[in-house]
Design brief:
The complex is a heterodimer. By secondary structure, chain A is of the alpha+beta class. Chain A contains 14 helices and 22 strands. In chain A, the strands form eight sheets. A four-stranded antiparallel β-sheet of chain A has the order 2-1-3-14, with no helix packed on it. Chain A has a four-stranded antiparallel β-sheet with strand order 6-11-10-15. The termini of chain A are close together. About 0% of the residues of chain B have low confidence. The longest helix of chain B is centred in the last third of the chain and has 34 residues. Chain B has a four-stranded antiparallel β-sheet. In chain B, helix 5 packs across helix 6, helix 5 runs parallel beside helix 12 and helix 7 runs antiparallel to helix 10. By secondary structure, chain B is α+β, with helices and mostly antiparallel strands. Chain B has 20 helices and four strands. Classes of the chains: A alpha+beta, B alpha+beta.
Amino acid sequence: MNDFIYLKRLFQAYYQEKQFDFPKVSSFNLREFGLIPWEKKVFMKRHMSFDNLDNLRNYLIKDAPRHLYSSGSLYLKPDAQDMKNKEYQGCDFIIDIDVDHFYTPCKDQHDLWICRDCGEEGTGMPKICPKCKGSKFTKVSWVCDQCLDAAKNEITKLVFNFLIPDFGIDEKHLKIAFSGHRGYHLKIESEELRKLSSEERREIVDYVTGENINFEILGLNERSNIISGLLEENIGWSQKIMKKIIEVLNRPESVIETLLLDKNHFGFNSNVVTSFLKYKNDFLDLITKGERNVWAIEGFGLINWRKLLRGMVKQVGVKIDEPVSIDIHRLIRYPGSLHGKTGFKVQEIELNELDDFNPLDEFDEKLDPIVFKSKKKLTQKLEIVQNKLPISKIKGESFGPYVKGEKIEVPHHFAVFLLCKEVAKTN
Amino acid sequence: MSIPTDLIKRFPWLPSLKLHYSDIADKLPSEFITDIFSKSDSQQISECVFIIFKSAFNNLEDIPKMKEDNLTVYVYILLNILVYALNNKLITNRIANLYSKNVYSKMEKDNSESNLYYICLDLELRVNFYDPPIKFGNKMLKDNREKQVTNFAIYYIDYLKLASNLRDDYRKLAHNPLQNGYVYIQNRNLMRLIQEYVRNKIIIEETEDKASLKSFLEEVLKNQEFKELYEKINSIWTKRKEDFDFTFKIDITGKTDILKLYPPCVIEILKKAEEGQNLVHHERLFIVWFLLSLDYPVEKVVDVFSTLPDFDREKTIYQVAYAKKKKYVPYQCSTLQSINLCMKEKYKDKLCLEGYGSVEPSERKKLKHPLAYVRIKQYRDEKEEEYLKNKAKRVLEESQKQNE
């Protein structure tokens, strides 16, 4: 049997078994639905709608698509084929945090790439092939605790450093879900936010990411060779940046040095870093006492100060997939559905559950996205079809690394994961 | 809390006008016109409205001799009726800009926090009012510390609704103090947002329904005094409109539909200019640099601005020529996005959204610069032309063969 037919049957069985636990999103019948079937040649099917949850459940049991999505937008005619005819009523504010969009050190271990031009292989997130300088890659992205923690950290920052204190958003309007792969979705369901235009949404996105901040407007300026900086007492981004500077400067010197030299963070050269560290304590003293506002460090002109502030903004801002929040016609994964590239469930989480939530080894069965874990400890025989596979740690157990052609026997849930990833086939 | 009637008299664009002046608000435009022109001070009202139009056509920054009296309400309503009757985007935008600027100066001269608070309440803006003013930060240059205080904080959604069209960098949400959903805003900046509200209120879309406009005109022009005023305005517009002619559609490549080659960010600015809408600083810089990069002659670039409410030909020639000398490069896509000038989502532009270079989505390159857009579009156009030529040639050859 074709592996996709097998997976489809597994998904069908899952939807059959869990049909009465399947969640219903708000304004259900006003949402557009979209799906990607298992058939390889069929792309996404959009512009569908369901009158009620029963219809959707029946559809899933019958068809069990590989991926299921619903719109953030509400429409009077969600199934109209043309966007213009859908009669748009508003859109929830959606934020997608996905480690695909930012660097985590663990990717250097587990994300594989193969250059499509010269066949060179490696790990990490290169922009160009180190061998042939080509820019087209086939990528196999993996999951691990570290990158999922990084994504969780971003969602925590978003909620507790921005949405609640700055925007005053009520917790009860926040819907958080693990995406079933490498990130989290956050949906703000509020009538007022639904009415925002794309341009107005862009302003919120710029606020939470810190993108495009103009430091001169926040107070950085040079007059008669004297540089004045930002102030901690100024509410908003000025305060956030200054708090971060103080926090960073209170770290051990070696840690600061590494951070300032790191190209993924600040990327200063060693001379600049040496000079900065030499005057670090005086600078810390100056900004914490707040009596004067003259930022003077040898070798630091406006350009370097901007670079330092930009680096701080990167640390404070939230790494989100911006177009998702701005585009009012996006579809997002339906909560409770299965992710066709992992077999994991798109799991809704309450804000107070977020801290302890561990998608790859969740102890609370109700929140566990790994739904194909066999109680009878069933195993499955597979053959690896990908050149190399990194070590995977799921449900407290380590698997791999594997190489192409290797025949393995692994627990059912991990086998489903490998098959969904299309890196193994049934033996 | 009820708004004082006196404030409505001075600021007749406030929503409560309908409550306080229900006798006027409920009238049909023709009834209102008959009523006004039967008043003893009709001459004064008419004169005042005419001055507003004249000032707008003459690019004045404020309305001279604009009195604040019992007639302000009538002037405002008559002004709106005329704007609708004239049905001309250029005129509408000029009036909206000038009238709203005048509102700003009035509020500024007023310098009354309580009046400003009443205005916000009437506009249903959610604001926190602090009396005495609250400190939200400091400005500090060297040792000189200056407290930043304000009487107002405005709910961020209301702030975004009013400010997002203004596009100045310092009005970006990220550059403002936001706490618990409220943006601390200095009184002057709040007035500027209200100015924008008034501007938008006056702007009405040009009606496409020519039949209903015609019957409206027939009805209101029955009144002789109104007709005279309407014609007087029309006549000075006819004399002046040549100065505001939008002569952008010049042909530099030998193609007729040059606009097809331009990215949506450029189209949007040209469209706004054509309609006589005000352009913000970044929009002006960008369009000048963009057109100059394509070797447009200075005088043609200047013509783009001729419809703008504050157009001054001499000044514009100097500035455009200076930009040409300096050879500035137009903003790249990321900068345009950061200053809210990127229009790829609004126009759903395929090239901007999906990139170029391959049919395979994962292999496409992202567009990084609006000039690259022009280059790619030109290339595609040429290819298409070539293809069509070849196709025509093949068809011709085949038919010749068949004839043989």
